[in-house]
Amino acid sequence: MALRIGDEVIVSCEAASARVVAVDSRYITLEWPWGAIDNSTNFRWNGRFSLPWGDSNHEWVPYRLEPAAPALRAGDVCTVSIPPTRLCVGHYEEYDPPRNLGWAPAPTAGIYVVPPGKSLDAEEDKGCMLYLGGAEPYHVEPVQG
Q1: Could you tell me the sign of the dihedral formed by the alpha carbons of 93, 97, 102, 104, in that order?
Q2: Fewer beta carbons under 10 A from the terminal one: N or C of the chain?
Q3: What is the rounded distance in angstroms from the CA atom of residue 71 to the CA atom of residue 90?
Q4: Is the pLDDT score of 145 beyond 70?
């Protein structure tokens, strides 16, 4: 599935339960429900993922939490997912061999997505890199026409 800059896609990710590790004014950190730590690599991933939240945070990710971040505290369990969301491709790359990021399975592709109407420049706070072919059950469907 080779995608080009500017292509529109519908991205989704099935819901999974995750334990909240920490919450501060900018981020909520979860024990990531997908993937496993790969100790055979020089990259060290701790099995956690931090999602931006709150009005003061300008970063963006397509993930949704249920219940929403303001209601969560460390130790709570929530659901993390990406409901079907129309996004624009800012960058797409394939990895052969799969990209070693410290978790297994290693992803085979990466897609940088931004909300429609946002700049396609790869600036960290405008979009989100999703790693495909790894553990997260992402579904990416090109928008036809």
Answers
A1: positive
A2: C
A3: 32
A4: no
Instruction: Read off the tokens for 116.
Output: 């429609």
- pTM higher than 0.85, yes or no? yes
- pLDDT band of residue 144 (cuts 50, 70, 90) is confident
Residues 6+ apart with CB under 8 A from 66: 15, 78, 79, 81
Nearest to 20, CA basis, from 61, 41, 57, 50: 50
Cβ 79 vs Cβ 66: under 8 Å? yes
CA 144 and chain centroid, separation: 23
- What are the DSSP E strand ranges found in the chain? 8-23, 27-31, 36-37, 48-52, 64-66, 77-94, 103-104, 109-114, 128-132, 138-142
Write down the pLDDT at residue 56: 62
What pLDDT does 122 receive? 52
